[in-house]
Amino acid sequence: MDIVAHALWSGAIYNKKRVWWAVFFGVAPDLFSFGIFTVGRLLSGRLFSPAIVYGDIPRHLVVPTYVHALYDVTHSVLIWAVLFSIGWFYFQRIPWEFTAWALHIVIDIPTHSLEFFPTPFLWPLPQPFFIDGTSWATPWFLVLNYAAIAGVYICVYVRKLRLKKMPGV
């Protein structure tokens, strides 16, 4: 799924406490892989290149190997579980906002096709299979996804209005 949608889903689901941390962790898997690559291309003045065609799947020549390696690490539920456990031990509480990272991985599994970064959710273990999902960039899926996000935000807003009208809240 695209990074904006990940941020919006995280913000909607974790809308009460530590929402900004949840949004950060919701986009972190992509920030720590594609974000580093994008910043490097920006700094080198090569963000847009003839090798990148709008709507085309980025080729391995354009997306370096380190991005694939970082993607494997940041999109693994096993790595996430280890980091979650460390956070739980360190903070002496369940770091709920960190579960937005796991949500990111779970959302990516059915929204990435085999052609574009299938989600290696069991990395570093051998992946017995990849799910050939519907690409998040498919126009009908984008419309459906953002309509669902808008619907969830409307529900959150209406709920907050109702809670404000209740006496003693």
Please write out the topology.
Layout (H helix, E strand, L loop, with lengths): L2 H11 L5 H25 L21 H10 L2 H15 L7 H10 L30 H27 L4
Helix pairs in contact: 1-2, 1-6, 2-3, 2-5, 4-5
Task: Enumerate how many helices there are, as a single number.
Answer: 6
Helix content: 55-70%
Sheet with the most strands, sense and barrel status: none
Shape: globular
Over the alpha carbons, how many angstroms does the gyration radius reach?
18 Å
Order of helices and strands: HHHHHH
Taking pLDDT < 50 over at least 5 consecutive residues as the criterion, the unreliable ranges are: none
Strand content: under 5%
Distance between the termini: 37 Å
Global structural class = mainly alpha
Question: Count the strands?
Answer: 0
- The figure for the number of domains is 1
Rounded mean pLDDT is 88
Keywords: Membrane, Transmembrane, Transmembrane helix
Write up this protein.
- The protein is mainly α.
- It has one domain.
- Helices cover 58% and strands 0% of the residues.
- The chain is built from six helices and no strands.
- Helix 1 packs parallel to helix 6 and helix 4 packs antiparallel against helix 5.
- The chain starts with a helix and ends with a helix.
- The model has no long low-confidence stretch (mean pLDDT 88).
Q: How would you summarize what this structure contains?
A:
The chain is an all-alpha fold and 169 residues long.
Tags for this model:
169 residues; mainly alpha; 6 helices; transmembrane; membrane; transmembrane helix
